[in-house]
What does this fold into?
Amino acid sequence: MQTQILRAIIDRIIPADDFPSASEAGVLDFLQRIIALESLQETYDDGLVAIELEAQKSGKAFCDLSPTGQDHLLHELEKSDDPKIRRFIEVLVRQTVEGYYSDPGNGGNREGIAWDMVGFRVTV
Amino acid sequence: MKFDAIVIGAGAGGGIAACTLAEAGKSVLLLERGRWLTFDDVPRDHLRNHRLSQYGHGTGPDLNGNPRLLDGWQYRPNQPNYNNNASCVGSGTLVYGGQAWRFHPLDFLMASTYGIPEGSSLSDWPISYEDLAPYYEKAEWEIGVSGSAPAPQMPERKEYPMGPLPRTLKGKLLEEGSKKLGWATQTPPLLINSSARNGRPACLACQHCVGFACPNNSKNGTQNTVIPRALASGNCTLETETMVSKIVKTAGGRVCGVKYFNRDGIEQYVEADIVIVACGAIETARLLINSKIGGPLVGANLQGHYYAVGAGVMPEPIWDGVGPGVSISTLEFNHGNEGIVGGGMLADDFITMPIVYAKWFRPKTVPSWGIEHKQWMRETYPRFLQVMGPVHEIPNEDCRVNVAKPIKDKWGIPVASLTGTTHPETLRTTRFMIERAKEWLAASGARTIYSNDPELHLSAGQHQAGTCRMGMDPTKSVVDDRCRVHGHDNLFIADSSVHVTNGGFNPVLTVMALAYRTSEKALATW
It folds into this structure.
């Protein structure tokens, strides 16, 4: 469940267009490493469960919501009264962007695809 | 064991001091907390470097065992509030961008030029631009600077040993803009080889300059110039991975040596005729306070640089990928700005990593995630133009380094504790400079121009300075005009701690020039 919902969320943070989505570019691998290095397992476990519970209030699992429904829920949670949820979304957004746009050595930005997209070229 | 001199810290100032003394025939012990690092040791990791230290920084100090406090909160070396500088042989000169500015003559005369803003500790230096000019020239030639003729606002000087690196497409667009505004420009001087020199090649124009080590060793730091020379003289012993805990005093105001932990963690005591401290403004102050040397002003007047940053989007893609990236600047606003204290230099910047662009340059109108964010990255990264520069800070005595006795590093030495903010007058100067940056962008054809309003904060970082200020009055300063600690005839400081004010420029060439001058003055009296 956790990987599935994590994939669904990060692919709303960076959706596919003619360039890959976050998960297609390897951001799950990036997050796996960062979660281990920064001891964030509990933060992620708790945060993902909290998001799933919020989704279920509308009668559907997060992954079964439409992309628009998922976006809507995440926008709502960014304004949540619960600071823990707000902070988790902030961390998840920040780390997804880090994974997508930083160097491929960190696990995301597979084969430099995000750098191709923005036009950052390494010559030496 | 006894040496003629002990130099603590192998960075910009310490490397030069060690070389000057060793080549003059003195036996020198150079102690460095960090390791020898080469290009292969410093990863090209976009999240762990000295521009973006999100999860690390790629050099020393190690993330664990080296805490610092800011306003009572504890931080690790990669966190912005730590105000880190690289610890390794060469220190920041291994990973800097290497902008090699001389301070402006009026940067030494801030109090007499502008008066003293209420509540600030703004003061003149006890030495002038003319006193430092020969040593600036020495640093430019010995360490190696490339660049063009000075802007009309600066005094004439001898040519640099190397001509300028090429102007980038962004630089050419800004050049057009500056002509429309009638602003004079110059290529920023860089401690980077534009042609082969002293057995090392010319710059490869790569995309990872500032924050990273150089792939072909064409960036000039003390680690590839004066420190190897010091060692080649046969008079200098370099001990890395050592930590000095105390400078030892004798009766009568002299110092006789230092206590330090060697790389095996074993405490040593070494004597010397003179001691030169060059650990950077924060660690030098920490060491003096821990050694009970220098009086109550040690640690006060901590400063660095606020940055005036303007960003804009051009109609067409302008990213040419030609590194280092900084290629045009103006000195129109360093001084003479009506109603403003000081000012600063403005320039384009080193190549911006995409993740840095995402983190630092997102306008408030763009959402932080979703397809709109991705489109913003795709469309604007290739078109993005920025102008930025260090702003002359107005110092405040209450912004300072102290030590936190109960909090100790891995050697058991009380750590640095930072408190206070710069004087609020700095905000007015910064806002004025942001407007000039935006004016330059607009004249250069940028369409969406934006900036962030500065907030009052403690500013130290890589440009940290001021904590052992130079002056003739021992009640108002820590070192004299030779950078000798008042009351201690054989104790000198050779880093940015002695800066009375920090100029509207990157400060490293001033650190280098002062280190040449201080070592020469030390030799002359001994």
